[in-house]
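Could you please consider the sequence and fold appended to this message?
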Amino acid sequence: MGQKKAVTKEVVSRYQISSKKAKGKVLDEFIQLTKYKRNYASWILRNYGREIITRIDGQ
């Protein structure tokens, strides 16, 4: 699991500064390395380093 986090840390900087076309290629490489599903992998790359707040009962 530590290897996936290391790969994510390396790929996320390239993904966030890439153009839309290049993001697809970076995402494909990331999926091959981590074996994540495409939707989950793109969510990780978009939200890396952000604080995720979950709300319970709309509060």
Notes: Residues 2-47 form one domain.
